[in-house]
Amino acid sequence: MIVFLFQSVLRLGQVAMLGLSLISAGQAHAREAPDPQSLVLSEAAIEEQARLKACLLKLETDAEEGFEDALRWRAEAWRPPARECLAAARVALGSFDKAGGEYYSLSAAPEITLPEERARLSNLAGTAFMLAENWEKAKEAFARAHSLRPEVPAFRLDTAFALEKLEDWEGVKVETDAVIAAAPTHPEALLLRARAHLGLADVRAAEQDIDAAIKADPKNVEARLTRGEIRQARARLTRPAQNPDLQKRDSQKPDLPK
What we know:
Blueprint: H1 5-12, H2 15-31, H3 43-61, H4 63-76, H5 80-92, H6 96-107, H7 115-131, H8 135-148, H9 153-165, H10 169-182, H11 187-199, H12 203-216, H13 221-238, H14 244-251
Helix pairs in contact: 1-2, 2-3, 2-5, 2-7, 3-4, 3-5, 4-5, 5-6, 6-7, 7-8, 8-9, 9-10, 9-11, 10-11, 11-12, 11-13, 12-13
């Protein structure tokens, strides 16, 4: 399942890699053994999972043909595996907003009864919406995933990433506070909270969090770039204010001789 990978990929702008990661997430799910509590899979269900796996593999080599196969499958049967295949196909073709809508509606389908599965699909919806730069829908999808699986901090952190894009700094702080309370040295949470503090003009708190983030993950390039932004903010705060009289004098043009 895509949790943190897509966040770092998105920050680096590697959209194509993220699309493949989403497809790989579906492949991992298609290979998973059934939960003991979810009954023995019927022969039809086993065939559907095998077809979903084949669909996702096809998308990695021929997205156009895979998309056509996905359309035909969904026309044959309005079943969750067919719908997931089509959502992944839309990702492979770069139709991220439509893919997000497919995943999101699928997460609420009556056939999907396990909270874990609903949360997985909601999280994939949020990922697709992030690629589409549809921050509001991404926030909504990630929040649904978290509400379904509140014990998974990754879903809460994903929500914080969407809130960061919306520049909802208070919201980012609420989400990252919760993650850091459970995992005090979580580098991504510390980095996000540092950016939230910077957005709220609390430079001292930003400095503390970014130092902790770099200590937890010294190779994090994003954290070091953020530390540079924080240092610039500190420099602006400590720069002595110019004397008003001097400022007025400097703004006046000298008299030219006649």
